[in-house]
Amino acid sequence: MQRVILFFFLIISVNLLSSCSSQKDTFTNRLYHNTTARFNAYYYAKEKILELEKEIENEYQEDFSQVLPVFYPIDSSTVSAKEDLLKEAREMASKAVDWHKISKWVDPSYFLIGKVDYYKGKHEEAQNTFKFLNVNSSQDEVRHVALIQLLRSFIDHRQYEDASFVIDFLSKEENISDENKQYLYKTLAYYYEARGEMDLMAPSLFKSLEYTSSRSEASRINFILAQLYQKSGLDAFAYEYYQKALSGSPNYERTFFAQLYSQQVAELERSKDLKRVREYYDDLYKDNKNVDFRDVILFEKGRFEKKQGNLEEAIRLYTLAAKEEGENERQKGYIYEELSNVYLNEKEDFLKTKYYLDSAISKFKETDKNHGVLAARKVIFDQYATNYELLTYNDSLIQLSQLSAEEQEKYVDDFLALEEERLINEAKMAEEKKSQGIFENLLAFGGGGGGSGASFYWDNPVAIQRGALEFTQIWGNRPLSDNWRSSDRGFQEAANSVENNIAVDEPMEEAEENSSATITAKLPDKNTLLSQIPNTPEEREKMVTQMEEAYFNLGKLLYFDLKQSEKSIEYLEALIEKYPETLKKPEAYYTLFLANQDLNINADRYAQLLNQEFPNSQFTKSINNPDKVSGSQANLASGENYKVAYGLYKDRAYEEAKNIIRKTLDEYPLTKNTDRLLLLDIMITGQLESLEIYKNRLQTYLQQTKEEELLAFAEKLLNAVSDESEEVAEENAEEPDENELPSDISIVKPEPPAEVSPYKEGLNQTHIFILPMNASLAETANDLTASLESFHNANFANQRLRTGTISLGKDTSILIISPFSSAEKSLAYKEAFLNSFNNDSLTEEIKNSSFVISIGNFQQLNKRKDIEEYRSFYEKAY
């Protein structure tokens, strides 16, 4: 009996050993390899890929203010962090191919290898694998899923012609499994999403739902369908699908937004019972389950109030929303962006606009659609804030300087006493509010549309002004400065600037909040405050000069960048009134002429003043000769003339050079070459006229030009003739030092500054695509923007591009598309734009005028407002 058993086991062992061969095609061999491949190598490889896909889903933060993407975007950083998963998946799938060649799991394992390459960004290798399976696999299910994955890869890379071919091929295939049908229809929805054909997404998503077995997946698809219907204005359908999205155990975030949006489309937007609508938002806020979404609730209620015309109530609610704790930083960005828009468009308060823009940008990533446009807009408001704050700061301190020393000390003592009292009171208020807890917040939130009494903190202007310290204590040191809401920024600003370290800028520790001694210890030092007051004529003169520059800069900024003609006139007229001898008067007159011309009031007055007071000014010539003011042709012609004149200057043909320069300045008064031509003309003056005239012209030039390299060169010229007497100059002329600029310019001629570009290479910086437009085209920018949005949805859906328009001068606006993480990606966009984007308002010439620019260089461009100058750099750098 034992021999029989032993013989039996021997037979089994021989069969098992023989079955280990990966080539021998027997029933036992196939059974072994099929079983081993499926439940070992293939199983583990698939699990690793599923684990990565789950990680991509978990790491992606849904933006419910936008239509959710069909597929979760693949974040390269997430993939890089999970590199080991892909490595293990490839190793296991490769073993299934190499060790089990006769099993039916070889082709499915090849498919997994293709997915590994797909997630690693090796798209060409992945596509080749999927194509190979389509041609060589005998398993329909593998062929179909490979084709669907190939289709998704084509859509990722906007290879729409190839994608259409695959769609057509799959439409003729039979026996597609339900699982593959679900994936196919979802990929079709992705195809229409990428092309911006949002209306065609819904039918594909409906078909995908028919074959979706996962209730969680069905919930998300229903939510997307609801968003599409809401965007189309089909509120009844949107409500139905938001309700369906609540099924399938969605996470609480999606549940919250489904409930919120379903109520909005069902009743809230159309309801005439405003009290009931407000109570609905109040109830949402009070629900403890919604603690993480209180910022959203406040924000949505604020939007509702704004639609009802209750702007102040909307601002109050937006401000509360910004203070609420929240998990989604992007949501805070939307809140601050909305506040910046309110203060820009409704309030025309550009200082607050600037600070809210700062806060908004800090909440968005560079890859977010909003970031690039907001960063470009912020440049303008940074300039505004710098000049406005300098003006108010200097004005306050100069007023204090008019007081006697005793009066100054008394003023500072009174100020410190008031500050001490305020800080102590604010600390007590903070303690009281902490003890009241959530009930105080609920009271502050509840109420009607802005009609609450002054007993509420946020309805009391005095309490708002005093709330800066409490804001910092409770919410931390936010990007907004503590007292920027105050219209009276004067001496308070002076105190707050001391050593950049002031009590109200630092949140107190809990143990210090009730300590008056600690609070008073953080007050600015009296002597330090007194030292800020300009008590010498030199200090006052310096501040007065700074104010002169600020008045001028604000006037130009308000007119050319912010399109505020009336405010521009106010600052420029103040400049002329306060500084009647200012060297900036010609340009101020010129800008006043343009601003008054836009308002159809008394522009001729400034044309007459220019002709009377500054008949030879380039700005006077510009008004008298408006057809040749600027433009690419004028820039080109003036540039060519400059080269000729400079050549004559080097050959000492001074009179001929001067004639060419004067003729050029008459024909083309304001071009990018004007300052350079003027400096060359001054240098010719140094050869032909007295030293005194030469010095005076240089001094005037230094007050008027803005180009840094020209300023530096002009200063060098002036220093050369100012530091030494004429006798010393003559001595130096006999033996000029080759390494220094000679003082006697009549003997040795200084070279004009080289064409040093103010722009720097930054190919790895975030980039912006720019399309310059004239005024008439800018008026139709909304239609153009809509066309571009469709183009982006069709070709760059994953990049989340944003479009905006800002002014770059009186007659030029620029359309901005951003962000691009590098120069390479922005140039790829430009190529697609030139080849594929069509719009009736855009000629080929306008399209070809487009260019890309880094964020750093954009700040220079916005400051200099000279597109042709940047193009010279662009053609070399890109």
Q: Rg, please? A: 35 Å
- The number of distinct helices, counting runs of at least 4 residues, comes to 42
Strand order of the largest sheet: 2-3-1-4
What is the count of β-strands? Answer: 4
Biggest sheet statistics:
4 strands, antiparallel
Oligomeric state, counting identical vs distinct chains? single chain
Q: Rough shape?
A: globular
Low-confidence parts: 4-22, 435-514, 724-750
Which structural category fits the helices and strands?
A: mainly alpha
Helix amount:
55-70%
What amount of the residues lies in strands? under 5%
- What is the terminal-to-terminal distance? 88 Å
Question: Averaging pLDDT over every residue, what do you get?
Answer: 77
Organism: Cyclobacterium marinum (strain ATCC 25205 / DSM 745 / LMG 13164 / NCIMB 1802)
Pfam families: TPR_6
Keywords: Signal
Protein name: Tetratricopeptide tpr_1 repeat-containing protein
What is the secondary structure topology, with strand pairs?
Layout: H1 2-19, H2 27-59, H3 76-81, H4 83-99, H5 106-119, H6 123-136, H7 140-156, H8 160-171, H9 178-194, H10 201-210, H11 215-231, H12 235-245, H13 252-268, H14 274-286, H15 294-307, H16 311-323, H17 329-346, H18 350-363, H19 369-401, H20 405-436, H21 438-445, H22 461-475, H23 490-496, H24 516-521, H25 526-531, H26 537-561, H27 565-578, H28 585-598, H29 603-613, H30 618-624, H31 632-650, H32 654-667, H33 674-688, H34 691-704, H35 708-722, H36 726-734, E1 767-774, H37 775-779, H38 781-795, E2 802-807, E3 812-820, H39 823-836, H40 844-848, E4 851-854, H41 855-864, H42 867-877
Antiparallel strand pairs: 1-3, 1-4, 2-3
Helix pairs in contact: 1-2, 2-4, 2-5, 4-5, 5-6, 5-7, 6-7, 7-8, 7-9, 9-10, 9-38, 10-11, 11-12, 12-13, 14-15, 15-16, 16-17, 17-18, 18-19, 19-23, 19-26, 19-41, 20-22, 26-27, 27-28, 28-29, 31-32, 31-33, 32-33, 33-34, 34-35
